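Pasting as-is:
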Amino acid sequence: MNTLKQNFYAVQSQIHQAEIACERNKNSVKLLAVSKTKPVKMIAELYELGQRDFGENYLQETLAKQQQLTDLKINWHFIGPIQSNKTKAIANHFSWVHSVDRFKIAKRLSEQRPCHLPPLNICLQVNISHEISKSGLSLTELPELIEKIKGLDNICLRGVMAIPAPETIYELQCAPYRKLHQAVIALKNSELDTFSFGMTGDLKAAIAEGSTLVRIGTALFEKRIRN
């Protein structure tokens, strides 16, 4: 068994064990393979193992990969910062966008989503740790943006995404996810069913605090490489 296959099965096992530990239903947490900077060969290999959802940060790199993988029914997720001049291409070539943090971007994605495609699934990125270096709206801004987005036709608001400040202590990893999860639940909006929480270093904490989708790169692909 090669390394990528071993890593894939190991990550799946970690997710399932975390579900059991938290008394959550099996397969209640989806794996998003973060494949930025990884060659198409690796993506195709994971696809053959059953992985369908792949997350990318860099638009031009992803478009090149998509051209080489047209025969695969991949669900492409855009998870990087969004520049206004990139919204049209993102709206045309992705199924999900996890990093919407202002109405202007949501509106452009809605207007530029082709009519022959289903609505674009989006998550709102919340800067839950208030880090200056990271994108995202504040928790207090979240309810207002949710209300404004409801009027947009070609996008489907699915939930929230967060990248907290890195921590190594389990409880400190849990705290920001718990805060955001509770805030969203308190809104009592049944359409918000996606919590894009957790990466390689805090997977267990994220699942304990309500994650429905974990974005895993390092544990799958190990050290980053360039195409």
